[in-house]
């Protein structure tokens, strides 16, 4: 069955590099073929470089779509082949062109949402290439996921269904109790001229008092269940999603702003609050409305029709409001993520900002993002207020209409005065939850935005660390066998056909110009990334069959950009590893040439540090990272520019200790002097292993290495090697 064209939904990108896959997802979704962004992200392998037009074409074809690229003016391409089109936009961006009409070019920007551009503006931003995506007979319908908040929360909180059922049962009991005063009203009014004794009224007074106590007990019990739900669901969801997050692969966090992840976490509370404060009360209100309507129907079907008409008007207004509200909420939350990311970056780089005197520029960047967020928030609130005003008007007019209907029924002889008062009381009682349901549905419309953002995290595949694999034996050789790696599918290789063996107890240095793939090589050895070509072997066993956690737990690693956590120096060195003793901590501090500095501090190793290790100098922080890596006597040590901030004497002490270790050691350095005494030196240029051997041998056998060494000795810039293209 051939898929038919529908209105293109808005799918916003989560990172700066995934505008291409977001645009493709929108184009395919316009034919009711919805693919989660996380799935496309994983298959495209966009990494830090984004997806090319060719990669998008391949993805579309994998989904059963035809994808043809066209060059030419935008209006001519649309007229010739139709829409939707994924088009190259501005400098390095993709958008979807829905159509061109008399109002202009209808564009969906995955970073900003729907917009209409004047043809002249669109022509200036269009980069001349468009991808026409259309379903073939191989394409199948993939409906959009419609999981609600209740089911989402239930997947994390066992037993929640029973608790919700108990709340509804208690609400049903409260509703039954609540309708008895109306029945008593009818009886009292209609019996005033008949009953002469006061005894029945005393009995009724006692009954009302008893019912009030029961109603109080039921309400308190129901509130206790709701409080339990809020506490349990928030804790369970947050723990489960954080557990999932920390198990995601390393590449997920490259290019993913911290602010975006923080805002996604705030969505947990929004979903929780929506379920406990909106969805659950809506279900409770439905119970009340059902019970009240059933009793009203036994007295006056006309009142039931009036209530149904009021509910229909509210439902239609909310239905018309919903799509626009969701679109604005989606864009608002997206801008909130950007604002949060700018704030995190500004606070993290405050020293640099002050040193350069660019505080005003940083503030301006944040203010721009925040003002965009506020504008979207104001537009959404304006829409909310319009709907709220309309619903309030219905709530104002509704009781008067019901009263007029009741008076008409009394005059027509179909209701007694007591029944009319009772019916009006019940109708008013039913109208309140009907209006409350409308107000709640107004907010629930935006829950989908937050669910989608949480699903974008949860849809990401966790890193496969092979827990059932072979335990890592680092007494064996660790080997790169013809390894190539690229951070994006179809992108340039950062490493190309590299073969390198690390023998047990050997010290291997890795040097080369910036951007030659040195840090990438270290990540491959740890299994943080997988090669696109070739293998990484430990004792002849591929890392794909090795328990990676056992490997990493026996490794001591210092990455570029030394940092710490807000804890004591001792806890920073221990890093949560309970088997690391105080003696191990002291030995690690001495090995990192930090023990004397710590001894001069009044609190010693108990000295508390601020966020990211604030309170230490750059060199001290780097030595703290070295101590953390060496604590626990690792079998594999990897230093990535680990001593770049150290003074000469401190660096000499660190390398003196490093030379005495029996562990396998890989030292990545920018300065050749750092590794000149290594057993072997690997010289990387533009992702290729140009030379491998001892320093003195390489000086004689590799002219490029000799030139590299001379440039460092005389302080010249690093030369480029002829015939090699620098890695991106």
Automatic annotation (TrEMBL):
Q: Which domain of life is it from?
A: Bacteria
Database matches in Gene3D superfamilies: ABC transporter type 1, transmembrane domain, Cysteine proteinases, P-loop containing nucleotide triphosphate hydrolases
Q: Which residues cross the membrane?
A: 167-189, 201-221, 279-298, 304-322, 387-405
Recorded GO terms, molecular function? ABC-type transporter activity; ATP binding; ATP hydrolysis activity; ATPase-coupled lipid transmembrane transporter activity; cysteine-type peptidase activity
Instruction: Report keywords, A-Z.
Output: ATP-binding, Bacteriocin transport, Cell membrane, Hydrolase, Membrane, Nucleotide-binding, Protease, Protein transport, Thiol protease, Transmembrane, Transmembrane helix, Transport
Pfam family, any one: Peptidase_C39
Residue ranges of the ABC transmembrane type-1 domain? 167-446
Q: Is the keyword Ligase in the record?
A: no
Q: Which named protein is this?
A: Lantibiotic transporter
Look up and give the organism this protein is from: Actinomyces radicidentis
Q: What lineage is on file?
A: Bacteria, Bacillati, Actinomycetota, Actinomycetes, Actinomycetales
């Amino acid at each position: 069955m051939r898929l038919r064209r529908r209105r293109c939904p808005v799918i916003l990108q989560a990172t700066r590099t995934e505008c291409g896959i977001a645009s493709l997802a929108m184009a395919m979704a316009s034919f009711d073929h919805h693919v989660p962004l996380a799935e496309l992200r994983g298959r495209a392998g966009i990494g830090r470089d984004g997806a090319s037009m060719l990669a998008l074409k391949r993805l579309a074809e994998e989904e059963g779509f035809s994808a043809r690229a066209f060059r030419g003016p935008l209006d001519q391409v649309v007229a010739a082949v139709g829409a939707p089109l994924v088009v190259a936009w501005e400098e390095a961006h993709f958008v979807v062109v829905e159509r061109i009409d008399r109002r202009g070019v209808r564009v969906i920007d995955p970073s900003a949402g729907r917009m209409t551009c004047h043809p002249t503006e669109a022509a200036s931003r269009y980069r001349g290439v468009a991808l026409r995506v259309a379903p073939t007979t191989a394409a199948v319908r993939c409906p959009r996921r419609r999981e609600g908040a209740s089911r989402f929360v239930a997947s994390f909180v066992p037993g929640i269904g029973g608790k919700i059922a108990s709340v509804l049962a208690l609400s049903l009991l409260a509703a039954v109790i609540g309708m008895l005063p109306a029945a008593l009203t009818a009886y009292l009014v209609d019996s005033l001229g008949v009953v002469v004794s006061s005894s029945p009224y005393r009995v009724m007074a006692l009954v009302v008092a008893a019912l009030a106590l029961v109603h109080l007990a039921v309400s308190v019990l129901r509130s206790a269940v709701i409080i339990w739900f809020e506490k349990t669901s928030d804790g369970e969801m947050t723990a489960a999603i954080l557990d999932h997050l920390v198990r995601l692969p390393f590449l997920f966090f490259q290019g993913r702003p911290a602010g975006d992840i923080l805002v996604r976490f705030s969505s947990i509370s929004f979903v929780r609050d929506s379920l406990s404060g909106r969805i659950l009360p809506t279900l409770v209100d439905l119970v009340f409305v059902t019970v009240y309507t059933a009793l009203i129907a036994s007295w006056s079907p006309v009142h039931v029709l009036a209530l149904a008409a009021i509910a229909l008007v509210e439902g239609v207004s909310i239905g018309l409001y919903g799509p626009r509200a969701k679109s604005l909420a989606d864009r608002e939350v997206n801008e909130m993520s950007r604002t949060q990311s700018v704030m995190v970056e500004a606070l993290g780089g405050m020293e640099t900002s002050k040193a350069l005197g660019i505080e005003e520029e940083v503030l301006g960047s944040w203010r721009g993002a925040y003002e965009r967020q506020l504008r979207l928030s104001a537009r959404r609130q304006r829409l909310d207020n319009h709907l709220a005003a309309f619903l309030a008007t219905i709530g104002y007019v509704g009781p008067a209409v019901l009263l007029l209907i009741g008076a008409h029924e009394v005059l027509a002889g179909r209701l007694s005065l007591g029944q009319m008062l009772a019916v009006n009381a019940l109708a008013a009682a039913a109208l309140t939850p009907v209006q409350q349901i409308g107000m709640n549905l107004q907010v629930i419309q935006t829950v989908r935005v937050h669910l989608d953002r949480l699903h974008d995290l949860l849809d990401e595949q966790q890193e496969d660390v092979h827990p059932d694999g072979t335990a890592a034996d680092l007494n064996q050789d660790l080997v790169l066998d013809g390894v190539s790696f690229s951070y994006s599918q179809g992108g340039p290789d950062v490493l190309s056909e590299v073969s390198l063996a690390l023998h047990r107890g050997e010290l291997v240095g890795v040097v080369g110009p910036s951007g030659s793939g040195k840090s990438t090589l270290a990540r491959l050895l740890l299994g943080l990334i997988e090669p696109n070509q070739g293998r990484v072997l430990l004792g002849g066993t591929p890392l794909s069959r090795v328990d990676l956690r056992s490997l990493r737990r026996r490794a001591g690693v210092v990455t570029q950009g030394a940092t710490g956590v807000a804890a004591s120096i001792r806890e920073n060195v221990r890093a949560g590893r309970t088997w690391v003793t105080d003696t191990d901590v002291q030995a690690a501090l001495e090995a990192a040439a930090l023990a004397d500095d710590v001894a001069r501090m009044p609190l010693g190793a108990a000295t508390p540090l601020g966020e990211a290790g604030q309170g230490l100098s750059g060199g001290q922080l780097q030595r703290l990272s070295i101590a953390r890596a060496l604590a626990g006597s690792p079998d594999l040590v990897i230093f990535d520019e680990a001593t770049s901030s150290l003074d000469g004497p401190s660096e000499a002490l660190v390398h003196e200790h490093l030379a005495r270790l029996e562990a396998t050691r890989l030292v990545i350095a920018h300065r050749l002097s750092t590794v000149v005494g290594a057993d072997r030196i690997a010289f990387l240029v533009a992702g290729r292993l140009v030379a491998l051997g001892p320093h003195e041998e390489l000086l004689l056998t590799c002219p490029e290495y000799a030139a590299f060494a001379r440039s460092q000795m005389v302080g010249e810039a690093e030369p480029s090697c002829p015939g090699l293209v620098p890695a991106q």
